[in-house]
């Protein structure tokens, strides 16, 4: 497994701060819109400790021994689900994975009834992915255990945004004043939305770049009404990439062209594909990221995907550390 | 025969006659007999007096648009429960939409509703017939037969007649019968798959939006067709500034159009979906009780709708009462049914506009009584008025009574309301239909 | 709430020097020793021991830090979580004599957790325990091999160790509340 080499710009403190109690107010992790900068930093520090565990030969600590983590996925997912399950197992929790399309516990049953069953089975933490935006907000009204949102519709994917922020921090130190460009189907992207909250809270500037049909019409007002001055919108890729510190192309689903939102994949590739040439507009240290899975040759060229600037695989490793951190911080906090 | 009634000492507000003063009202044999100064009523044998001091006494409200769900969806509502809810809300006449199962596109089903309402209904129920068979938008219903049964107009509500050709034929046909076409204006291609207004809240919540243009396009089309055919067009549940403007200009041009607006579109914005109310916590609510079609819009639209009420562009307030079971609503936002159960909160919610001085009481009552009545054919007599000789449909309400909405207390089977837990000021106290008390609030 | 000083900076220094001598004596030199300080104040104490041993044996003893937050037996019932500090042991512990260093030895649960952590990191040949203060009230059958000072306490008293590298001064104090106070967690 590739070990993570933190950049030397991260300082090892010579002084040892006294043990402190974490300022963590969440019984659930639904989105990053209600996370303070301190809470995000806490996730990072906890993830650092978890990353250390992942470098050991025995990647296991007994922290969540006796706890049951249930992953409930209504949408197919390999990497996110595996990431959460590994994170739970590394903390010695018991894991149960429910695939809603196959499991008779959930097939044909209302979401609320399924959650009640899962809670009655003894789940301490539910990790849920759902195709409907807002599903986790409904869920928490009906369960007492903790819930981590592994992605709801177009709305949020907090653990992904946290691992994106963490990856940037590991390479570039601080997020403050960095320019982060997200390119692609912003309208349907929960990764983009959660990153908007996370990046702006940490002081980064975000540029959202997409063809006009893939930008929500209300995006300007959303940015204005939520007072997010560090978010800007571009429909052309060149200005979006100029001097960027990190670039994140999003997966383009083929169905978008089929549903008429784009004239052709060819045009999308011509205008928005992240190529080596376009990448050279960014800062020399630019990080190339991707939430996965990659459509090589569509939103990103193979050279860039596998090039020296790419930290895509590292994001996956960081994802396990971040999810271990979230499970650790969530466990034990009883729902009020 | 209901007893003779003297409603005494109330503030009589009847915009149809321009009456707005404290007076007594006499009802005999189920009809309004006399109105005059307190204590000067002609003597009557066997008289019951209702003390209306401190209450507003007005014609029973006329709802041009509600869904009683029977036949076919009796788990959501029946004619019995829906009309009880109407009575609690001060409505004495309701016009029920034909999107039942089977739909009201034949004489048989429409007659069923009429007869059931006569037996089980607490208030007067007037049916609306479908424009097209099965509401499919392809073939006209037998409008003449439906007119004989007694429909007050035609609508495919829930759906729009997409084909302009079919719509213009429907208008021609209906015009000849002297009945209005009531259109639910929605361009389904544009709105398809949308769950709420297309704007900043939908962008924030990651929900597909329904653009305002989806309504305005069809409003414009219908107005053009109404001009062409001469039919009386009634625009259902207007929700946008743009629609109001189109209707205003159409009226200026002399096109025979009327329009209605719902209480929720006058008081709630799209933000209600995001924030529970009263605000319980900082988390997003994704409140399905605020999911309705047309969707809740913006405060600019509310301002335009209120202006439209005041300058006569919008003629009526109609509830679009749309009850649903809890199964239909207690689920993910995208999967939840559209609709608000609104009969029992209509007055209280609208009184908020009166108390905040955005609307005066006289205009409000006018839009709930004789103006909607004008849209209905006179076959059912003069509704929405306290003129002597008219049926005694009367509503008494306390404009200042404070109360908290609890959907568990609803007479309607539909507990789906975004106003649950809201503190309102204004409550119906007594409702009379044909001189008989059909609702009385417990003191 | 009177706070009384039990050990002055000089007392602390003498105790640490004595412990360093004892470690060298018992282990017959400093070969194969790894000092592991328990976060947080055990770490600077371990470093001081290493410095003293360096002076005695002219051997550089590796010093590591260990955070036991992930090994606690009460973690999931805590609503507020301790922040996890660094676990950084610069050498393989297998076949080494690992000497855990902590400031206060109380119920023994921290040391139990530390031993579990060390077992996950390798297979030490032995684990020894050096503490600056032993305040009694063991809840597990664990003993210290090296103790700076034995201070009998009652459960409602609190021992506070101040370490120059963390707190700006060196001293050990005891807090004896008159009314009932919370027991110090280990």
- The string of secondary-structure elements of chain A, in order, is HEHEHEHEHEHEHEHEHHHEHH
Residue stretches of chain A low in confidence (pLDDT < 50, at least 5 long) are 1-19
Low-confidence sequence ranges of chain B: none
The portion of residues assigned to helices of chain A is 25-40%
Give the count of helical stretches of chain B: 15
The radius of gyration over CA of chain B amounts to: 21 Å
Q: Quaternary arrangement of the chains shown?
A: heterotrimer
Using the alpha-carbon principal axes, give the shape of chain A. globular
What is the mean predicted local confidence, pLDDT of chain B?
A: 95
Radius of gyration of chain A: 20 Å
Strand order of the largest sheet of chain A: 7-6-5-8-9
* Secondary-structure class of chain A: alpha/beta
Spatial separation of the terminal alpha carbons of chain A = 40 Å
Q: What's the CATH first level of the largest domain in chain B?
A: Alpha Beta
CATH H-level homologous superfamily name of the largest domain in chain B: Metal-dependent hydrolases
- Tally the helices of chain A: what do you get? 13
Roughly what fraction of the amino acids of chain A lie in strands? 5-15%
Which descriptor suits the 3D outline of chain B? globular
Number of separate strands of chain A: 9
Q: What amount of the residues of chain B lies in strands?
A: 15-25%
Describe this structure in words.
The complex is a heterotrimer of chains A (336), B (443) and C (186). By secondary structure, chain A is an alpha/beta fold. Chain A has helices spanning 37-54, 79-90, 111-121, 135-139, 158-172, 190-201, 219-225, 237-241, 254-258, 265-272, 276-279, 302-305, 312-330, and strands at 68-73, 94-99, 125-130, 146-152, 179-183, 205-209, 231-234, 246-249, 287-288. In chain A, strands 7-6-5-8-9 form a five-stranded parallel sheet. Chain A is globular, with a radius of gyration of 20 Å. Residues 1-19 of chain A have low confidence and may be disordered. In chain B, helix 7 (213-229) runs parallel beside helix 8 and helix 8 (241-252) runs parallel beside helix 11. In chain B, 30% of the residues lie in helices and 22% in strands. Chain B has helices at 79-88, 107-120, 143-149, 164-177, 188-191, 200-205, 213-229, 241-252, 263-267, 271-274, 299-310, 326-329, 346-355, 361-368, 370-375; strands at 4-14, 19-28, 31-36, 47-51, 56-59, 61-66, 91-96, 124-127, 181-183, 196-197, 209-210, 233-235, 257-261, 316-317, 394-404, 423-433, 436-440. Chain B folds into two domains: 4-56 and 392-440, Urease, subunit C, domain 1, CATH 2.30.40.10; 59-375, Metal-dependent hydrolases (TIM Barrel, Alpha-Beta Barrel), CATH 3.20.20.140. Chain B has 15 helices and 17 strands. The longest helix of chain B is centred in the middle third of the chain and has 17 residues, at 213-229. Chain B starts with a strand and ends with a strand. In chain B, strands 1, 2, 3, 4, 5, 15, 16 and 17 form an eight-stranded mixed sheet that branches. In chain B, strands 9-12-13-14 form a four-stranded parallel sheet. Chain C is α/β, with parallel strands linked by helices. Chain C has four helices and eight strands. Chain C has a five-stranded parallel sheet, with helices on both faces. A three-stranded antiparallel sheet of chain C has the order 1-8-7. The longest helix of chain C has 18 residues, at 9-26. Chain C is globular and about 50 Å long. The relative contact order of chain C is 0.20. Mean pLDDT of chain C is 90; it is low at 180-186. Chains in contact: A-B, A-C. The A-C interface holds A 12, 15-22, 24, 42, 45-46, 48-49, 52-53, 56, 58, 60-64, 66-67, 91, 124, 328-329, 331-334 and C 39-41, 43-44, 67, 69-72, 75-88, 116-117, 120-121, 165-167.
């Amino acid at each position: 497994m590739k070990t993570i080499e933190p950049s030397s710009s991260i300082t090892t403190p010579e002084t040892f701060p006294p043990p402190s109690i974490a300022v963590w107010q969440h019984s659930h992790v639904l989105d990053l819109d209600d996370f303070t900068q301190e809470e995000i930093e806490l996730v990072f520090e906890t993830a650092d400790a978890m990353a250390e565990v992942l470098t050991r030969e025995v990647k296991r600590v007994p922290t969540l021994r006796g706890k049951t983590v249930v992953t409930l996925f209504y949408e197919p997912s390999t990497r996110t689900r595996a990431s959460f399950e590994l994170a739970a197992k590394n903390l010695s929790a018991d894991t149960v994975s429910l695939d809603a399309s196959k499991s008779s516990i959930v097939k044909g049953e209302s979401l609320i009834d399924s959650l009640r069953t899962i809670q009655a089975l003894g789940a301490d933490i539910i990790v849920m992915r759902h195709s409907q935006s807002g599903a986790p907000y409904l869920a928490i009204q009906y369960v007492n255990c903790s819930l981590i949102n592994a992605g709801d519709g177009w709305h949020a994917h907090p653990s992904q945004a946290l691992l994106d922020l963490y990856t940037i921090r590991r390479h570039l130190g601080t997020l403050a004043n960095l320019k982060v460009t997200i390119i692609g189907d912003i309208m349907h992207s929960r990764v983009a939305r959660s990153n908007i909250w996370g990046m702006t809270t940490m002081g980064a500037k975000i540029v959202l770049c997409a063809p006009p049909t893939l930008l929500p019409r209300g995006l300007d007002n959303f940015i204005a009404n939520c007072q997010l001055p560090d978010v800007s919108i571009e429909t052309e890729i060149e200005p979006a990439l100029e001097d960027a510190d990190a670039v994140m192309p999003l997966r383009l689903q083929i169905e978008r062209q089929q549903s008429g939102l784009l004239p052709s994949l060819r045009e999308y590739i011509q205008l928005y594909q992240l190529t080596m040439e376009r990448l050279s507009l960014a800062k020399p240290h630019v990080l190339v990221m991707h939430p996965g899975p990659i459509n090589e040759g569509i939103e990103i060229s193979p050279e860039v995907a596998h090039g020296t600037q790419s930290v895509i695989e590292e994001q996956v490793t960081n994802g396990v550390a971040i999810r271990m951190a979230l499970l650790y911080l969530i466990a034990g906090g009883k729902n009020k | 025969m209901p007893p003779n009634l003297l409603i005494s000492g109330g503030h009589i507000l009847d915009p149809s006659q321009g009456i707005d003063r404290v007076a007594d009202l006499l009802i005999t044999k189920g009809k309004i007999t006399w109105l005059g100064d307190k204590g000067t009523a002609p003597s009557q044998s066997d008289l019951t007096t209702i003390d209306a001091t401190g209450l507003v006494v007005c014609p029973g409200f006329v709802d041009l648009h509600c869904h009683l769900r029977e036949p076919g969806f009796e788990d959501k509502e029946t004619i019995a429960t829906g009309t009880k809810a109407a009575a609690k809300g001060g409505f004495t006449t309701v016009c029920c939409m034909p999107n039942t199962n089977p739909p009201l596109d034949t004489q048989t089903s429409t007659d069923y509703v009429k007869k059931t309402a006569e037996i089980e209904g607490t208030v007067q129920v007037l049916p609306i017939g479908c424009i097209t068979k099965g509401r499919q938008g392809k073939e006209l219903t037998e409008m003449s037969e439906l007119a004989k049964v007694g429909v007050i107009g035609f609508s495919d509500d829930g759906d729009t007649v997409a084909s302009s050709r079919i719509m213009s034929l429907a208008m021609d046909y209906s015009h000849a019968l002297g009945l209005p076409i009531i259109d639910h204006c929605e361009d389904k291609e544009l709105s398809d798959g949308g769950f709420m207004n297309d704007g900043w809240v939908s962008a924030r919540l990651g929900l597909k939006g329904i653009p305002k243009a989806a309504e305005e396009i069809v409003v414009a089309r219908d107005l053009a067709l109404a001009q062409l055919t001469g039919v009386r067009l009634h625009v259902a549940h207007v929700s946008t500034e743009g629609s109001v403007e189109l209707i205003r200009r159409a009226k200026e041009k002399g096109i025979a159009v009327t329009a209605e607006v719902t209480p929720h579109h006058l008081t709630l914005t799209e933000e209600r979906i995001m924030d529970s109310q009263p605000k319980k916590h900082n988390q997003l609510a994704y409140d399905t009780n605020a999911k309705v079609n047309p969707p809740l819009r913006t405060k600019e639209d509310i301002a335009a709708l209120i202006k439209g009420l005041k300058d006569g562009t919008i003629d009526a307030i109609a509830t679009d009462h749309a009850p649903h079971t809890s199964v239909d609503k207690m689920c993910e936002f995208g999967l939840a049914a559209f609709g608000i159960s609104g009969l029992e909160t209509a007055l209280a919610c609208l009184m908020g506009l009166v108390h905040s001085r955005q609307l005066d009481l006289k205009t409000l009552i006018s839009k709930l009584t004789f103006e909607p009545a004008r849209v209905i054919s006179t076959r059912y007599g003069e509704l929405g008025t306290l003129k002597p000789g008219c049926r005694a449909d009367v509503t008494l309400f306390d404009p200042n009574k404070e109360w908290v909405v609890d959907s568990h207390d609803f007479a309607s089977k539909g507990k789906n309301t975004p106003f649950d837990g809201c503190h309102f000021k204004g409550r119906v106290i007594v409702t009379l239909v044909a001189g008989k008390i059909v609702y009385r609030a417990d003191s | 709430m009177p706070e009384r000083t039990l050990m002055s900076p000089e007392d602390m220094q003498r105790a640490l020097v004595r412990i360093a001598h004892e470690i060298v004596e018992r282990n017959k030199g400093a070969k194969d020793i790894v000092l592991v300080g328990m976060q947080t104040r055990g770490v600077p104490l371990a470093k001081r021991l290493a410095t003293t041993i360096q002076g005695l044996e002219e051997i550089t003893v590796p010093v590591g830090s260990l955070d036991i937050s992930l090994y606690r037996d009460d973690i999931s019932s805590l609503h507020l979580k301790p922040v996890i500090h660094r676990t950084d042991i610069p050498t393989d512990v297998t076949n080494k004599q690992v000497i855990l260093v902590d400031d206060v030895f109380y119920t023994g649960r921290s040391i139990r957790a530390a031993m579990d952590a060390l077992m996950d990191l390798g297979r030490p040949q032995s684990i020894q325990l050096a503490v600056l203060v032993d305040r009694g009230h063991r809840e597990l059958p664990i003993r210290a091999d090296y103790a700076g000072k034995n201070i009998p306490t009652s459960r409602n008293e609190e021992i506070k160790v101040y370490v120059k590298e963390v707190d700006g001064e060196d001293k050990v104090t005891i807090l004896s509340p008159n009314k009932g106070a919370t027991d110090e967690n280990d």
